[in-house]
Amino acid sequence: MPVDESVSEDLKQRLSMSRWPSSPQIGAPGEYGVDWGLAKTLAAYWRDGFDWSSQAAALESVMPQFTVEIEGLTVHFAHAKATDRKKGAILALHGWPDAFTSCRKIVPLLTSYGYDVVCPSLIGYGFSSPAKEPGMGAAKMASIFVTLMKDVLKYNKYLVHGGDWGALISVYVAVSDPQSCVGLHSTNCISKPPLNPFAQFPHGIVRTSRFLYEEGSKIVKNVINSMTTGSNETDTSAAPEGKDESEESVRERSSAMWKETGYLHEQATKPHTLGVALNDSPAGLLAWIVEKWTTWSDVPVKSSGERDLLALYSKDEILALVHLYWITGSITSSIQLYKEEFFEGLQTSLPYVETPTACAVFPRELMKPPKYWVEGAYNLKRFNTFDKGGHFAMMEQPEALAKDIDAFYTTLLEEAEQKARDEAAKKEQQAQQAADKKAQTPGEGGGGKKKTEAEKPSGGERTDL
Counting CB atoms within 10 angstroms of each CB, which of 110, 205, 208, 253 has the fewest? Predict the structure, then answer.
């Protein structure tokens, strides 16, 4: 992953010339957005201390990287092989604002369990090509990654894991390739309440916040409430008996959705406008990404109320991600996926997933659909909740996540082996029954009484009774 020296020099100059806000940062920590102090600290280290070459070498040592042409696009992927591949292959799909770099901690764990691991960069992310025309949504990306696994890497059986956009793409992988994709593991088991909330989005999502809260609130509040509580003013359905959530849980999720989805509206409507700013300013790009990682990760909270991002991740880990977006100029093409899916893809009902599915739920995850929603959308075999962790589980809780994936895949393998044994035993039983029947049938080669001359019909011809 070499980078031209001129790109590095240009980055340092831009960071040196960053124009930070001169007004005081008011409000509680995080209430108005990214912590400027944290952003400045990271920007200074990015300029003066961060070494991309060493980060790239570290990534390459853990998971060698390759590119391949599929459907006219360059697809970048990391491919780590187990020394003893005794279990199978895993396709791990990231989301936004993320990259293949988030596989760096979980890959060594999974390979030690006996899995090969493939971590591609989504189309338009990192070193993968941007889309050449509209329509590159989750379903099309899934088709590309199925081709990668089956035709390029020759895996005839694999499990797909995904979070964020990777979770949605993994649904289409499982549905489109049921013969080879033996299981789906997700940290965002995307599912909806009985009434499709997205059908109402276009009528209210782009209006002003005042209108949304006062005049247009029924439309958009119904949408958000549907996504977070499972109900809205036009949907009288209730949770099945015994499956109601606590009021505190519902309020917490609903509040988080309202407070933390401002970015989504802009990226889903005018990504190219936002892209100009983020692609031009490294400080702006840093702030945009770091704010999400700070808010969505399950980081320690200081006595001041400030969320301590650097207590969970190192500066190098955060900046490796931000730097990747910068040197590839991929921030604009990455957020285009919101435009492709939010008004077209997500308004379409997702297909039911017949593939055996496991859902891993981390407490700091933004969207946590109730189990009974998930049961209605997937062939759910495992639903595991964790005490710690957030949106970026591969980086936050790699050990817990790897163990959960391994436990699920191991169960699938054991069930497949048992099924194979049962089928073999059944075939053996059927063969034995056929042999016994044949042995007991006169004139079929044994076991029957031989006819005497008197029993033979006239003409000396033999007939079987």
Answer: 208
